[in-house]
Design brief:
alpha/beta; Rossmann fold; seven-stranded parallel sheet; six-stranded parallel sheet; 19 helices; 13 strands; 50% helix; 17% strand
């Protein structure tokens, strides 16, 4: 029996890693999975030492505050490498943790497969040398990354972006309206606070403040707040009574909600690319600590953080840092909602982003490649 230790530390890692492993299990029914993940990976029969809810965190300062907690998890996983002696480790994104684990696996002669490469083309280019030294097979999501890594002297494999396979609505707009009791006479704006509980509690007030100001600038808007499966609706209940909004809380129905909305306000991350694929105009915002923001902008010289903009290599989707006022974001959204030409151009730009992501079928192709190297 083959044994693979998988490390997925976030909801997106469970999603993409889980789908790849599902396809791999079709090819290797005897495959035994151990490690970390969420519902998808757990549903494949994996023995999970930690769940994604215990691992997900963002930002330099935020990680530093809980260093001892994550160090304990890391040491335990390394001990599992010695106890279980897996054939390979399958590391999904989560670079800060997984690159260190790659080094430990390599010391033990365990094959290292890294899926969803860290964005070294945007920042932390020193990580390229770590990837070269400790990763046997690097699988990337964007076609341009193959050329980037080749120029750096490392082979990478791209099988298309997996979001093309899964990011699509499965009901019509009329069905969505009926399902959630939405008003068909109004425009709909999605307020998207992120997939981690700490993100949601940090972002909700900003989103609701922006929604209040949108109401002041344009008529006939209903707001949706689609929550990820990892976030319980009770998380935002304390905030709801503080604002008078025509707002519907929607749980575990994000793709349909976004696809059939007129606009979205999206926390930086995978959701921004999902929203682009669905063709919904958006503003990307990020609310981090001041230290995190300053390090990113001035020390690491990050020009763009939104995945749609990185894919397009130009600023097609507006990005707002944490200190941008709700009033300014509301102005932008109202302008797009009220200007047909601006709105149409935005939609066309999103089509161009989607066209740069390759072809569907990424999960199956990725699994076939992993099967060939195990």
């Amino acid at each position: 029996m083959s044994k693979v230790l998988v490390i997925a530390g976030e909801a997106s890692g469970d999603l993409h890693g889980g789908h790849v492993l599902k396809e791999l299990k079709q090819l290797r029914p005897d495959l035994e999975l151990i490690g970390t993940g969420g519902k998808l990976i757990s549903g494949l029969g994996a023995e999970l030492y930690y769940k994604v809810e215990e691992l997900a965190v963002i930002g330099f300062f935020e990680v530093a505050k809980r260093y001892s907690y994550y160090k304990g998890i890391f040491d335990n996983i390394v001990a599992r490498l010695d106890q279980e002696k897996p054939e390979a480790v399958f590391l999904v994104d989560y670079a800060g943790f997984n690159l260190k684990l790659a080094a430990e696996a390599k010391k033990r002669g365990i094959k290292v497969i890294f899926y969803i490469a860290p964005q070294v083309w945007a920042w932390k280019k020193k990580r390229i040398e770590v990837l070269k030294q400790f990763v046997d097979e690097l699988i990337v999501l964007f076609p341009f990354e193959v050329d980037f890594f080749r120029k750096e002297g490392m082979e990478a494999h791209c099988f298309g972006h997996p979001l093309l396979d899964i990011v699509k609505p499965d009901i019509s707009k009329d069905e969505l309206l009926a399902k959630w009791g939405l008003d068909s006479t109004k425009k709909h704006v999605c307020l998207m606070p992120g997939s981690r509980v700490n993100e949601v509690t940090k972002h909700v007030s900003l989103l609701f403040e922006t929604a209040v100001r949108i109401n002041e600038k344009t008529d006939g808007v209903q707001f949706l707040i689609p929550l990820a499966p990892t976030v319980k609706p009770e998380t935002i209940h304390p905030f709801l009574d503080q604002y008078s909004l025509d707002l519907k809380v929607i749980h575990d129905d994000t793709y349909n909600s976004v696809a059939h909305s007129d606009f979205a306000l999206v926390a930086s991350g995978t959701a921004t690319l999902e929203t682009a694929i669905l063709g919904t105009p958006q503003i990307i915002y990020y609310k981090s600590s001041v230290i995190t923001y300053l390090i990113g902008k001035y020390l690491l010289k990050i020009k763009m953080i939104g995945l749609p903009n990185i894919v397009a290599n130009e600023m097609l989707v507006p990005e707002d840092p944490h200190f941008v006022s709700p009033d300014k974001m509301a102005d932008r959204i109202a302008r797009y909602l009220n200007d047909v030409n601006l709105y149409t151009t935005f939609k066309k730009n999103l089509e161009a982003v989607k066209s740069k992501l390759g072809q569907p079928g990424a999960y199956k192709k990725t699994a076939e490649f992993i099967h060939s190297v195990l």
